[in-house]
Amino acid sequence: MMIKKIVVVGAGTMGHGIAEVAALSGFKVGLIDISWDFLNRAKDRITESVTRLYEKGQIKEKVEDILGRMEFNTSYDIAKDADFAIEAVPENLELKKNVFKSLDDITPSHTILATNTSSIPISDIAEATKRKDKVIGMHFFNPPVIMKLVEVIPSKYTSDEVTNLTIELAKKMNKIPVKLKYEIPGFVSNRIFIRLLQEACREVENGEGSIEEIDSAARNKLKLPMGLFELADYVGLDVIVDIWDVLVTRGTPDVKCSLYKNKVLEKSLGVKSGKGFYTYPAPGKYMKV
Ligand code: 3HC
């Protein structure tokens, strides 16, 4: 099967970045969201990012040619001729099932339907469709345009052909795919990531270290590109709490810690709201801590 057009549903932090990566890789792209506000903001962010890459000489193709391959819409109509769809809406099973039902209704029968979920079982999402063998997890990392890893997660229903096509697609998108044997909770990387965040949180709440000290240790000893609390801000504290809850519900040991939940209750969601553990210049504007 030749993949020519990719549609992405959800134009937020991950969705707009995945759409950008697909367009940079030469695919025709459709980006769908529920409001033109979200779509216009996504278009601005993609334009800014692609322009940055062009000005630094990291891509040769003109910005207008890359954007010319992209269409934006609030209607699923632009998915009618898609060969591959990637859902990147918030971590809510009912919401994801609705998206998959809509995609299942409108896309051709050959279209593969992927989810960028960070923690929800792929099989549960697949059950909303009549093509469970063509539903798969394709988990990107933030920011998708920079991060190389893509986890490819077949569900108990996914065919080998669909898994192989998804691995090939990730490679065509200049990513390094890691295929999971089956859908373990949190897949490979978020299991490790959330355990690190749990321990960091426990240390702060027990008065063993401050947020700044733990972040300094993460940068200067663990050699992570960001501190752990900084990275939690970058990913979104609401997303962290969602993943944490799913992992604990699915058997990962819990750690008593309310730092992240309290921030979410205060509506301090991290970079996206301009404030989390650290303060940023404006909502959505990350600046090195
Ligand atoms: N578009 C284009 N270029 C971008 C960009 C974007 N959106 N974001 C960063 N860049 C470029 C910058 O221009 C810069 O390029 P240069 O080196 O040529 O000048 C380069 O990337 C580095 O960026 P910065 O100098 O601004 O800052 P950093 O060196 O700190 O890098 C970072 C930023 C790449 C985000 C780095 O801090 C990093 O890798 N952080 C960790 C990110 C991470 O772990 N993500 C995974 C989170 S978990 C997840 O997503 C899973 C989910 O399920 C929760």
Describe the structure.
By secondary structure, the protein is α/β, with parallel strands linked by helices. It folds into two domains: 5-179, Rossmann fold (3-Layer(aba) Sandwich), CATH 3.40.50; 190-273, Orthogonal Bundle (N-(1-d-carboxylethyl)-l-norvaline Dehydrogenase, domain 2), CATH 1.10.1040.10. It is 43% helix and 13% strand. It contains eleven helices and eight strands. The protein has helices at 13-24, 36-55, 63-68, 93-106, 122-126, 160-172, 189-205, 211-220, 228-235, 237-249, 259-265; strands spanning 5-9, 28-32, 70-73, 84-87, 112-115, 135-139, 149-154, 176-179. The chain has an eight-stranded mixed β-sheet, with helices on both faces. Helix 1 crosses helix 2 and helix 10 (237-249) packs across helix 11 (259-265). The longest helix is centred in the N-terminal third of the chain and has 20 residues, at 36-55. The radius of gyration is 19 Å and the shape is globular. The N and C termini lie far apart (45 Å). The relative contact order is 0.10. Bound molecules: 3-hydroxybutanoyl-coenzyme A. 3-hydroxybutanoyl-coenzyme A binds next to helix 2, helix 7 and helix 9.
Tell me the layout of helices and strands.
Elements: E1 5-9, H1 13-24, E2 28-32, H2 36-55, H3 63-68, E3 70-73, E4 84-87, H4 93-106, E5 112-115, H5 122-126, E6 135-139, E7 149-154, H6 160-172, E8 176-179, H7 189-205, H8 211-220, H9 228-235, H10 237-249, H11 259-265
Parallel strand pairs: 1-2, 1-4, 2-3, 4-5, 5-6, 7-8
Antiparallel strand pairs: 6-7
The structure holds 3-hydroxybutanoyl-coenzyme A.
Organism: Sulfurisphaera tokodaii (strain DSM 16993 / JCM 10545 / NBRC 100140 / 7)
Protein name: 3-hydroxyacyl-CoA dehydrogenase
Domain 3-hydroxyacyl-CoA dehydrogenase NAD binding: 5-181
